[in-house]
Amino acid sequence: MAKLMRTILILSLLPSVLRSQEAGDIVPLSFIHWNDFHAANVPYEIKPSAQDTFKPYRVGGSAVLKAYVDSLRTVLPNPLAVYGGDDFQGSPISGLTRGRSQIDLLGMIRPDILTVGNHEFDYSDSVLEKHLSASSLDFICSNVYSRATDTTLVRPFVVRSVGGLRVAFIGGMTNELYRVSFVGNLTRIRLKPINEAIRSNLEFIRRRHGPIDLFVAVTHNGLDRDSLLAVDVPELDVIIGGHSHTVMRRASKVGKTLIVQAGSRGRYVGQLELMYSVRSKRIASYSYRLIETRVDRIRPDSLVAATVDSLEAMVGRSLNDVIGELHVDWKIPWRKESNLGSWEADVFREFAGTDIGLMNTGGLRKELQAGPIRLRDVWEMNPFGNSLVTLSVSGSEVVDMLTHSLNHAESLTQIGGIRYEARRDSGRYRIVRCTVGGKEIDPGRTYTVVMNNYMASHLRDFFGLDPERHPIEELGVLDRDVLIDTIRKQRVVGQPADQRIKFLD
Questions:
Q1: Where are the alpha helices (DSSP H) in 84-222?
Q2: Are strands 144-146 and 189-191 parallel, antiparallel or unpaired?
Q3: Which of 24, 155, 412, 454 has its CA 20 to 30 A from that of 179?
Q4: DSSP-derived secondary structure letter, 15
């Protein structure tokens, strides 16, 4: 009888014992992440689409970003803050300090893990090396190597113990680094394929660092390529990405791999929460959300705010000078005609006295609402300090250039002085009509073209042109200086989208 009672007691207690074991099996882990901040150190205004219902509000800025990151750190279980690269470029202070302002501010926000973006090389690889050597942050990147030492520019990976879990973070840079950067800025480094580098480091970690619970890639690679990475390296549990500025309100899942990215310019912070099963060695469940960094819902970090103020004082009050008035919102759709891009292409063409003006959409970094145009706005719209150049092409080459751009470029090339109609057949675009200066293009005539020196340094990638057959002439002037002078002369700017490009399908 006593034995029976003991058996009944054990059976009655079994569910609670199993629940206890199950509860101990699950370990929570939280990732707080952001990417492509682009020196947006000062909060900026968001204009909702329903203007009659919602009022504009301000988001972002370094002090607000730190406040959101720190608040999440205090409430989430086992938190790790992860940054996906591209902190340089986007505001005058970044250019003035050649990126040092951003390294210092990152040092105050203190992400636990971060990788470098392509724009970190905009002031040259040697300048970046100096900044990195002065930083105590855990930068990781597995496929950018120093030519001098044949070692990675920063550590390829780090292994962290969090909540009893061993988590390996492997960094990676887009294979497009040479295509999206000035080659002259990349003389001290070489690049290995990102998927190959991440895979080989993952295997090395397994061999040399013992059991790993989670493998996390921190990449500056773009969402589409991160999805391919997940297929190529299926052992990855999470990819925290950047580069494509993708606003992901839901995590993407490829195989077992979760992929996240949080837009750009500090408007959003991503919150990925995992429930990891120690027994089954896998992510049992997860939740994900984006948090908009609204200024009116948090108290900015006072120390970071004071640092930003002192940096802005270095730039000077003159950047807030109003130089003109904008009558329509300037927009930057990625694969469509941009009224800002059209206006800039027109301005460059008029300045250079050429037949055609071209502007890459990727060089336009800030939309602007109708209202006053400040000097700062132009710096932030065209932050790269590109110079203008001209070259000559035949009429048939003009059509080939635009056709190549339509079929190979990620964004639409903005045009001035020219119009065309295109149709998509069998998966490829072809131009069916093209006019220059209101006249049908003459295949045998020579036309002059103005563009920025970044585009000219990638003639083959952008337009399929052989650079040796198309020498460029430097005009010795920066694009933004031409834009600033033009706004000051025009005073009132109103550039509507005027359908220079028509897609017939």
A1: 92-97, 100-109, 125-133, 177-180, 194-208
A2: antiparallel
A3: 155
A4: H
- pLDDT (0 to 100) of residue 184: 81
Strands 268-277 and 144-146: unpaired
pLDDT digits (tens, 9 = 90+) for 394-445: 999 999 999 999 999 888 999 999 999 999 998 899 999 999 999 999 999 9
Spatial separation of the C-alpha atoms in residues 152 and 144, rounded to whole Å? 6
**pTM value > 0.85:** no
Angle at 350 between CA 319 and CA 327, to 5 degrees: 50
Phi, psi of 58 (to 5 degrees): -105, 145
* Extended strands (E) in 345-427: 356-360, 371-374, 387-394, 413-416, 418-425
Tokens linked to 356: 């055609």
**C-alpha–C-alpha distance, residues 276 and 30, integer Å:** 11
Cα separation of 110 and 89, whole Å? 19
Neighbour count for residue 429 (Cβ, 10 Å)? 17
d(CA 64, CA 45): 13
Residue 17, pLDDT score: 34
418-425/501-503 β-pairing: parallel
Q: Look up residue 183 and give its amino acid.
A: V
What is the rounded CA–CA span in Å between residue 44 and residue 40? 8
Query: Which pair of tokens denotes residue 37?
Result: 């901040």
Contact 327, 372 (CB under 8 A): no
Token reading at 266? 């500090």
308 phi and psi angles, rounded to 5 deg: -60, -45
Mean pLDDT of all residues in 244-256 = 96
**Interatomic CA distance for residues 240 and 169, integer angstroms:** 10
The tokens for 52 are 């009659």
Kindly give the residue spans of alpha helices, DSSP state H, lying in 353-394.
375-381
The span from the CA of 107 to the CA of 110, in Å, is 5
Percent of the chain at pLDDT exceeding 70: 94
Give kind and range of the element (H or E) at residue 19: helix 2-25
pLDDT value of position 23: 54
| Rounded alpha-carbon distances, angstroms, from residue 361 to 205, 319, 338 | 40, 24, 8
SS3 category, 126: helix
